[in-house]
Write a structure and sequence with these properties.
homodimer, 318 residues, alpha+beta, oxygen-dependent coproporphyrinogen oxidase, 10 strands, 42% helix, 25% strand, globular
Chain lengths: 318, 318
């Protein structure tokens, strides 16, 4: 994935749309290729269209050697939404007096569920949204992003590497970014009914529009670009580690929490389910298997218990 | 489980509370004993108390010979709720002007996840609720109930027997009950994002208070009493049937839908999760394992396809 060549700020949002869309679509190819090369298995590819405008391509690798499931989904959707719908869906009003507001949204999501419980699962999502009339004053636009690492066994070196890689990108744009986005990530990936976080965090931001679009476009491109160089070595370190049946069982139970997060807590998944998006694409983020056991508690001092301690109290990793 | 001896209507709701609570608690013992005898494995038993008043006993059998998981949970909770909370939780107002309304709720839930995919899963729940001052005019009370059969392979004889057993009880009380409650059950056990029902239905009712409490108490006792005599023979017919790996896989995938229903659609589970009830007790209804596969579709004309056809278009069974 080569770097994004930034054009000078033009004030014309179609330039940004074209650039971000082309970049995310190209990244889908590059990322699928890298993951497929590592695994040895191919991705299937499904194109879908949205009745109201736009569509996407969902690529999935299932039952591979390294990955039990990997999803790389690209979407570009557009059309009109009522101002109420925009407010409900996005938590903020569009600057408009029209009854139907034009909108445009594009995003890339990567969800990786490795087979070996020593390899953490990963979720990456970068997206751009704008709505309202094209004139600069009346339009609303922002970027959003997620990079989250969900380990089943705690390897501090992996957590640190993941956070440091994302902090390095954040710091190049704004020294305040990483601290804010790390905290927002811990907050977002939280299961209130379990008093527990999903994973060891990373970065999370929404509604980011505090500097020129062209700059933020560069920021999310750089974030996306940081992912494979830090995640692939983690996979390489862990993928051939010996696994006991008890560890496999633990993996399944923790995937149960992953399912709970997706179906109960994740605003993105719930929004997809409620708005009748492509259901198979929305639920392609689910783990391939999960388990539930009544009152399961890891033994004090065990590796499993050490993980839970960190999920209960998020740590500083970078 | 012997029949409930009904006392003559007394107008005193504590009599009804005592009777229903004692009956549900006693039924828990009897049902656990019957399921444990069939399986050979014991139930664990956990007593829990609720901070605001009351508590319950959760009994679970896991990893048995016949049942991968069976849950029989009894609860009796009471205290006060704000009128707003009652309205939000229950969809209707309590007749009161107080800021805190006394309430009382008791229920028995049975969730059975058999090991063999030819044996359907079953969910049974009967409950009583009242709130407001004890004087007859100002108080609100009702009964609720669920009996739902969730097969993984379609055996019409099982579906008919389950429905007929419940229809027979309904008909003894009101010829209009079964038709209404069967339809409400199909409506309740529906996954809108899949355009598919969970299971082949049964009966579902909520807010039932259209005749004297003592009569309705007899009705739900009779419903509960109808369960084992129809479900145990179904288990007996199917528990030793040969199972292929493809059938086990299908079982897991359908349990994925079961999880989706519980976590996304089931008002009871969501209410439990949101109100900070005993989480382990709430989620003890989950299947022991579940799986998701991208774009999985049964082959046309297969047994799996025949099931899906019925889940998409509920049938008349009795």
């Amino acid at each position: 994935m080569d770097a994004l060549t930034l054009r000078p700020p033009s004030g014309d949002r179609t330039v940004v749309r074209d650039d971000i869309t082309a970049y995310l679509a190209r990244s889908q190819d590059v990322i699928c290729q890298a993951l497929a090369d590592l695994d040895g298995g191919p991705f299937t590819s499904d194109d879908w269209t949205r009745a109201g405008g736009g569509g996407g391509t969902t690529r999935v690798l299932e039952d591979g050697r390294v990955f039990e499931r990997a999803l790389v989904g690209f979407s570009e959707i557009y059309g009109t939404l009522s101002p109420e719908r925009i407010k409900t869906a996005l938590g903020r009003s569009a600057a408009t007096t029209s009854s139907e507001v034009p909108f445009y949204a594009t995003g890339l999501s990567i969800v990786v569920h490795p087979r070996n419980p020593h390899v953490p699962a990963a979720l990456i999502n970068y997206r751009y949204f704008d709505c309202g009339e094209p004139s600069a004053e009346a339009s609303t636009w922002w970027f959003g992003g997620i990079a989250n690492l969900t380990p089943f066994y705690l390897y501090k070196e992996d957590c640190k590497a993941f956070h440091q890689a994302h902090k390095a990108v954040c710091d190049r744009y704004d020294k305040a970014f990483y601290g804010r986005f790390k905290e927002a990530c811990d907050e977002f990936f939280y299961l209130p009914h379990r008093s527990e976080h999903r994973g060891v965090g990373g970065i999370f931001f929404e509604g980011l529009n505090d500097r020129p679009r062209e700059i933020l476009l560069g920021f999310i491109a750089d974030c996306l670009q940081a992912f494979l160089p830090v995640y692939m070595p983690i996979i390489d370190r862990r993928r051939n580690m010996a696994v006991t049946p008890a560890q496999t069982r633990w993996h399944q139970l923790r995937r149960g929490r992953y399912v709970e997060f997706n179906l109960i807590c994740d605003r993105g998944t719930r929004f997809g389910l409620e708005t009748g998006a492509n259901i198979e694409a929305v639920l392609a983020s689910m783990p391939p298997q999960a388990a539930w056991q009544y009152e399961h508690k890891p033994s004090p001092g065990s590796d499993e218990d050490r993980l839970v301690a960190v999920l209960t109290n998020p740590r500083a990793w970078a």
